[in-house]
Each structure stands twice: as C-alpha cells, then as structure tokens.
Amino acid sequence: MEQLIDIVLLGFLVLIAIAAIRLRDLFAVVMLFGVYSLLTAALFMDLDAVDVAFTEAAVGAGVSTVLMLSGLRLTRRWEEAPGHRPPLPLMVVAVTGAALIYAMLDAPPLGDPTAPVHQHVTPYYIEQTPLEVGVPNIVTAVLASYRGYDTFGETVVIFTAGLAVLLLLGVGGGHSFRPGENAIGDQTVLKPVVKTLIPPILLYGLYVQFHGDFGAGGGFQAGVIFASGFVLYDLAFGEGNARAVVPPAWLHRLAALGVLIYGGVGVYALFAGKAFLDYSALSANPVAGQHAGILLVEIGVGITVFSVVLSIFYAFSGRRRKS
C-alpha cells in the first residue's frame, strides 16, 4: 500500500511539473508550485521523514508561494514566448538527468538494512543519543548537536541569502505605507477570521520551537511559522500596520542576533577549554549541557529564519511596479 501511495504521488508530481513547464500563465504556475510542494510534503510523510515534511509544507507550500505571488506583482502575469529554441536546454537537462541516474545506480535500495549507513552511522546515533545528548528526538540531536557545524553553516547561509535579497531589492522601495492599506482590499469577513487565526499560529510557532527536542520541529520550522503569522497579518490588515508592529529595521538586527547566539555558544565552549559547539561546556552535567546548548542554538536559528523570511517579504511587498 505504501508503494502504491508513493507511485501515485510521484505520478502527480510529474504531471504538475510538465504542466508548469508548458503553462504561460505565471499565476497558475505559482499555484502549481504550491501544490507540488504540498504533495512533496505528503510524500515525505509517507516515507516517515516527518521533520522534512514539516519544513517542506511550511516553506514550500506556504512562504515560498506567498513570496512568488509578491514577486509576481512586480512583473507581468503572462510569460513571453522564449527567444531561444528548446533543443539545447532539453539536451542539457537530458544529459544531466542521465548522469544523475547513472550515479544513483550504485546507491543501495531505499531502506536496505545492509546499507553502510544502517551498519555504522545509524546504530551509533540510536545507541548513543540517549546517553550523550539525552534528547528523545534523534533528528534534533543529529542536526543540533552531532552535526551542529553544518547547521551553523546553514544558518549563516540563510542570513547571507537574506542580505543578498535586501541588497538587490531593498526594504520599502520608497513607498509610503498608510495604516489599513493592504494588498487584498477591505475584506469584511477575512479580517475577523485572520484576527482569530493569528494567536494560534504564533502559539503553535512557540510550541514547535520548544518542542523540537521531543517531536518534529525546531528553530527552522518555528521561524517560518512565526513569519507566516506576520505575513498573514500584513496581507489582511495592511503593510503600514504590519511594519508598525515589526519595523524592517528590527529584522536586520534580529537576523544578525540569531547568528550571534548560535556562534556565541561555540565561542563560549572554546573559552571553556572545549571544542567549538561542544555543549557540555555549558554545565557540569554533560547531558544537561547538551539540552541547554540545543535550546540556545535552536532559538538562534528560529530568530534568524523568522527575520530573514519576513525581511524578504517586506522587500517584495514594499516595491511597486513602475507604470
């Protein structure tokens, strides 16, 4: 049954990809991308990759769709006919796909218990995580502790990407925002609904932030959910009101603060005579130090992700298409 579900989902993904390539209506393409991400999240759920599905649903189907729609406001809805002939791009894609398929031929089958990762890496994490880290969610232990260097690098990449977008687009674009001015007009029914939804969204973001040790979640997902709440507020109640609640100038500092919190934990460990990002330096009890370190770095990730996502939305929504 699981294989049948996977095949059906993959079939839908292929059909959506073909439709997105052939369509010239950019609004329809953006909607298809949102559906594509949602089906991908469902596929990850069927593969028991809950954390990845969580992230795909929040980022791919949620925030990315809103950002693409915001970008679409600055362009035309209909794509112009391509000025080049398709054979050359098709050949490049075909050769690249063939190379990827060839490289995957030596990979072990999905879920093969004799695969090297299941013989060496996985047993160590399963056996040692309760003793060395003490976090029930092994995914969080791996991401925030065992491979904390990689996660720190990803946090820096997110921060750098946000800076790059702001350097290209800026924030505000010189537009003056009036209170109540929004992108969807005066919606009598929508505003009370949004007003009711925003508190649960923010509370759920906090839950995901601090529940990542025990289940799916963590700073990345929490930051996206928190930013989604403010994006929804912006769309319903106006950009002027949203920017009064969370000024764009705050977001630059908050994004840097999140990176500094993460890196500061590692620097503190160095001064304590431990390795960089060795959380055992935070407490006399190594397991308690792991808990404290993971909590701090996840907060840093959440702050950076929230700030960067909302900054990018402000950058797009603050610009106006030239007439």
UniProtKB/TrEMBL annotation:
Domain Na+/H+ antiporter MnhB subunit-related protein: 190-310
Sequence ranges assigned to domain MrpA C-terminal/MbhD in this UniProt record: 12-77
Pfam families for the chain: MbhD, MbhE, MnhB
Localization (cell): Cell membrane
Metal-binding keyword on record: no
Superkingdom of origin organism: Bacteria
Keywords of this entry: Cell membrane, Membrane, Transmembrane, Transmembrane helix
UniProt record similarity statement: Belongs to the CPA3 antiporters (TC 2.A.63) subunit B family.
Protein name (database record): Cation:proton antiporter
Source organism of this protein record: Candidatus Sedimenticola endophacoides
